[in-house]
What we know:
- The protein is mainly alpha-helical.
- The chain is built from 48 helices and eight strands.
Amino acid sequence: MSETVRASEDSTECRWTSQLVGGGTKWNIFVSLCLVMGTIRDNDDDYDARIAGRAPAGTAANDGATAGQPQGFLGSSIFPSFNPASPGSGSDSEDDRPAAAAAAAASSSSSSSSWLVRKPDEASSAVTPFSSLAQSFSSFPSFSFATVPSVSAAESTRDADKRKETKRSRDPYQGVEIKKKKRKHKDSSSSRHEKKAKWKDDHHSRPESSTKAADYSTTKDFYIDRRGDSNNLIYQSLPQSDIPLYRAFGNIVFGATGDWWIDRKAKGRRGVVIYQHRPARDKVSYKEFAIALKSRPQKWRKTKADEIDLMMDEDFVPLTKASGAEGTDSGDAPGSILEENADFLKKTQEFNKLLMEKPKDVQLWIDFCKLQDELIAGGSKRGAIRQAIAEKKLAILEKALDAIPGDEKLLHQYMSVCEEAYDSIRLLTKWDVILREHPDSIALWDRYLEFRQTNYASFTVNQCVEVYEECMETLRDAEEVNALRREKVLLHVFRRVCHLLLQAGQVERAIALSQAMVEFSCFCPPAFAHQSFDVRLNLFEIFWESGCPRFGEEGARTWANDIDGAASRMHRKQVEQKDLIDDDVDDEFLHWYLQETVHEYNNWLPLTDDQMVDDVEDPFRTVVFADIRTLLFHASHPSTLVALIDHLTSLMALPTNLSSSPSSDRRFLDAFLHAELASESAAKRMLAPEFPEEDSDAAQNNLLAEVPEGEAVRFAIQSFPFGEGKVIASRGWFGAIRGGEVKAVEEAGFGRMEFVKNILQQAQKVTKRDELLSPLLLALEADVDPNRALKLGKSMLKSDRMNLPLWHALAQINLSLGSEEEARKILFTAVIASQGFAKEQKKFSAMLHFCLAEMQIVSGRVNSAMGILLSLVDDKFQPSLDDSDKVPPTKSLRGRKLFTDILDDSVTPPTSTHLPTVTACFALYEYCTHGLSEALAVFARGLERLGRVAVGDSFDEETKKSQFELLQEAKARVIFVHSKRGVGYRPGDLREALEKALEESPHHSGFLELFARAEARTRIENRFRRVMEAALARNPSHILWTFFIWAEIRQRKNFNVNAVRALFERAVECPSSRHSVSLWYLFVVFEMMCKEGKRAKTLFYRAVRECPWAKALYMLPFRVLRSEFDDAELVDIYSLMEEKELRLRIPLG
Length: 1149
């Protein structure tokens, strides 16, 4: 008998056949009577079949799988249909048949017939007790057999002569050729006549028959279906071919237990081959298999009625859902994996209806795809069900792409699902096909870069860099894309590849690439400006290979001032080094870790050929032009040029935002660009804050509530636009420099602080935003030595007394030192002097007036503050620090009108860049005269005006978003001033303003710091958690997850370890932060701090798989996790770093 069953994958119906032995004279008489009564209809395909007594192809025996059987277990037709077919040549061997076929056919026995299966009286004895096999295929339909007319001896002889012939008959439903043997039918049901008549009407070609046929005069062309078919509603289709009976899930057949598999490697056979995969019993005869198929189908989906009936049998109402029937292996049943309830089916029907009406609606297709995620159930089957749902999503998106070809959003979603369903090789092949068809799609390239960088199996640093090079080459040639948009996309890709190199240990190449980009774009000689891109590259190669000091280095003259580099070549200084290696370490692996770390700390600046000394054996310290040529691009827009300066300072561990990008910018939200917390010192500051002593009353209080009044909250990540007066944090307000920034830069590399100062000084030739560069330099100096910074600031003012931002920075430094009166004098002097300045120099005076008025209001000198604000719009009014001088009412009304006129003018670009500061001054003026409500109304009108500003070349969408955030900051600042005054303050005012600001700008780190501090003082913890959860639900990011963890740890000294661990786990599972090196690093260190070494070791392997490029993660076992790894494992990790082509400076051993 046969051990395998073959089926056609393309067919949606099953044609099960078998060969059993039966016969008898009485049985022949019964068959003849059935023929006379019209029960059997002849086959139209073969005239000889009517003579030989073979069962006609396509009769009810073949229709048994569709007639009267439950059809479709799944609430959707997305899964590929699985259609078992006949065993073909796998039945009994022809050699075992009786030799005297003609003689046997002449006798009353019908055993010579290959179709007549058995006599009616043998039906019960044919069912053998293979209960386990029947249970395995309990969902398959039972057999149906038709009767066959009696045949004469001559006809039987002719039939016996043709037994060895194989005939192919075409399936009438799907047109799939199925290999069949000659066989006879027996009657299966009383409705066979009507089903055969229906089959005849559906197939119009029937040759004239010369033999006696059955009487079909009573057959109706149509009949009324009084029962109805629920599948018409489920599948939204009438044809039977659209209703699948069986489905394949991987190599398993739905409806069968897991020991029955599909042989995907079967060769030389048509259709699908099924075999039983058991350790104890590898094969089973076809007879046993066919008998098992007669069992009643197992239900795929439980209905509400079934649950009610099950509950009625109990004496109580169970708390959990009732399990499967007794004796059923519910663990193997697909229903335990996937459940399509009535609500899901209803939504599916609604989507199907909408998609039929709107097939071009992209978002509708994506929403329908996301609906499938509702099928995910918890438990051990989650991995399996994700694969099944991914296949459903792919089918949906393929249909969507057929309706809307080439749509970027659909393609992006489609490839995201492919990453879940395909293996690495198949996925890479798919990406190659997609990118060849859509080479200019920026969104697809961005997704492809992310995939190649995060695919652990295929990742190597050099291959990933080659992908970036290919992407940049494609984008450079995409002329049809808007020039500014293409420039911004190229800048984003450039940032990504630089941070990839930096985090992979190739620090020299990352810095050299950034230096070259600044020189090539920002300091191009005017004579070369009109040359083509390739010509300029060739000219720039001469400058690069000359060995002259480059941008950021001491003595750099830039490419524009030294075309061939010969003039400044002799001024290049040798790089100093600092020896920090401890030779007393006994552990070989820890000693190697210290050596590797120290070499990376010292040797971060790229060298030229002239600087290479004889004892330097590392050739990668020299970056030749060929290493960076393919990653350069043309940049000319002013915002892009300033962004390049920000990018270079971020590589030096100093985050700046000279371009005043909004918090929603890619540079902040992209987790690949942020690894600032992936170091031991940064992780310690993040996870182990310094709480008060145990005997203090504040030991168990919220640490954020204990921040001194004059200090700002210090969150590690900065994501807010740099506005006027926000360079230095003071008086409890956030700013760019809050203390500790210089220490972080110096920890990253020896001599980096001098490099950063050179960048800021040389960048003054690139950007005109001196209101940020000069104060930033002064603030960095103050972070090291405030007194020296004051002397430096005074000397700078002597040479440039009209530099108002410098006056403001000098006052802020005095405030940080506690010299409030000195700061007040500096600001008042600057305010008086600015009244005589020209309009161009006076545009920065608003921040001086606001800062001085704020100090006066907090001190209780409201009249003085009002006069200072009035002098901003009225040059003739002389302000005073004495609060006894009141502003006359007429002057007050005139001041309001002047403020309104100025705000109306400042809304029109380009003077709108100062709109937030002027609006804040007007609001503070209204606060002095009418109170807080009028001040908030000023901001409401300012936000409304800004919303009406049209976006253009000089005022793009990003600038508009920055102005919105700066206005929200000014609004919160006025409420903050009111809170410090302590007169009629309601904490809800600041909370409501910050909640509204966070709804529009959830990633703004300044708003997050202020909100956490305000809520900490109210001692209402859950309100802060509720706001954070809402922000994460709307738009999650690595910034939100990191801040949430940071704030949770600072709730109290004995914080909830499990709550923090749960936040970490959710963060690393979130798609937006799954590849955050900082979060993975912090998670591992956190578990080690909690004495959970095994957890930390498991997390290490997960982290490396998600971030295979991050050298900082690979280095964890050599020091932080040293107690959890033996020597052999550390050798394997070192070999893995070499395999991934990470930069290793010192060989192990």
